[in-house]
Amino acid sequence: MRYETVKTDITVIGGGLSGVSAAVAAAR
Question: What is the top-level taxon of the source organism (predicted)?
């Protein structure tokens, strides 16, 4: 398994409609 460190303001974990909705809401 590979671990990756990413520095972001908001991290969206998960896929599907809820993940996409969270990503779109965060982008606004």
Answer: Bacteria
